[in-house]
Structure formats: C-alpha cells, structure tokens
Automatic annotation (TrEMBL):
Organism in which the protein naturally occurs: Chironomus riparius
Signal sequence, renumbered to the chain: 1-34
Alphabetical UniProt keywords: Signal
Taxonomic path: Eukaryota, Metazoa, Ecdysozoa, Arthropoda, Hexapoda
Protein name (Swiss-Prot/TrEMBL): Uncharacterized protein
Cross-referenced InterPro entries: Snake_toxin-like_sf (IPR045860)
Length: 178
C-alpha cells in the first residue's frame, strides 16, 4: 500500500480541501443571502411617487399691507397672508430693503424702506450694502419650515438648535475623557 508519510500528505490535502470547500460554501451562502435581501428591498415606484410632496406654507405679502411688517404667528387673521408654495418653491424668504444716511459726523439708524415675504425656489441668506453717504441695505433670509418667515427675518432656530445640541454633546464627551 502507501507509505505512512504519503498517507499523512493525502490526509493533510484532504483536510485542506475540505476546509477550503467549507469556506467557499459559507461565502456562497453569504452572497446568496445578501442578494436575497437586495431583491426583497427593490421598490418599484412611479415618477410621481418618487417626487417628494411639498407641504410648505409661507407668509406672502409686502410692506404695503400693514399686517405684513408685524407678522409674529400669533394673530389669527394672518391666515389670509399665508400661501401654499408650489412644488418647486422649497424656501420661505424675507427680503428687507432699508437705508441709512450719513455725513462726516454721524450715521442715522437703519430705516425700513420695504419688506417682502414669499415662497421662493432659490434662496441664500445674504445682505448687500450699496452706497456711501446714503447706503441701501438689501438683505434676504431663508428658512424651510412652514410659516417660518416671521418678524424681520426667517427663523432658522431648528437647525441652529440641532447644531448647538450636537456641539454641546461633543464638548461633554471631550471633558469626560480628558
């Protein structure tokens, strides 16, 4: 028959092949189960179902309406100033135009010239100042929650609160591990 060293060599090859087969089989099972999960997670939706419905409402008015300047979310008749934004309009905005007068000795307080509230497709928080002696301040603030464009700006408290909470949490962790 076979010498004992040859049998040991065959035995080790057999164990190696068996181990490789077990590993290969477990990999195939893992691949098959992950593909099964992928097949089960496929969702077929129409284009309309994929489109996120815009439920945003904003105050829409200009300064020529007396109530427009003083919107603060507490007066019930302000419901007349609300507007359902279109599908493309994802921001509420407040645009303020004010001016200051200055001479070589002083600068006047900022005076509101006009104010507009509305829904808008694109919005950036910004302020542009034009002029030297008479300065025109054109400012726009934006927000993304319903009826957030109150006061003389658009409220962004929710996102700031989240950032402040996360920042506080990180500081607490750093202090505890120091």
């Amino acid at each position: 028959m076979f010498p004992s060293s040859h049998l040991m060599h065959l035995s080790s090859n057999y164990i190696f092949c068996k181990s490789a087969a077990v590993i290969l089989l477990s990999l195939l099972i893992d691949i098959a189960s992950s593909n099964k999960n992928n097949f089960n997670s496929v969702h077929h939706r129409t284009k309309e179902a994929e489109t996120k419905v815009n439920d945003l409402y904003c105050y829409a008015c200009d300064m020529f309406d007396d109530d427009c300047v003083n919107i603060n979310n507490t007066i019930m008749r302000q419901i007349d100033l609300t507007k359902k934004c279109s599908q493309e309009e994802r921001f509420c905005s407040v645009k303020r135009f004010s001016y200051t007068m200055s001479d070589k000795n002083s600068t006047s307080d900022k005076k509101l010239w006009t104010l507009q509230r509305n829904c808008t497709q694109k919005c950036e928080n910004e302020c542009i100042i034009i002029g030297e002696r008479m300065k025109l301040h054109a400012c726009q603030t934006c927000c993304t929650t319903s009826l957030c464009n109150v006061g003389s700006h658009a409220i962004r408290i929710k996102s700031l609160d989240i950032i402040a909470t996360i920042f506080s949490f990180l500081i607490a962790i750093l202090i505890n591990y120091s």
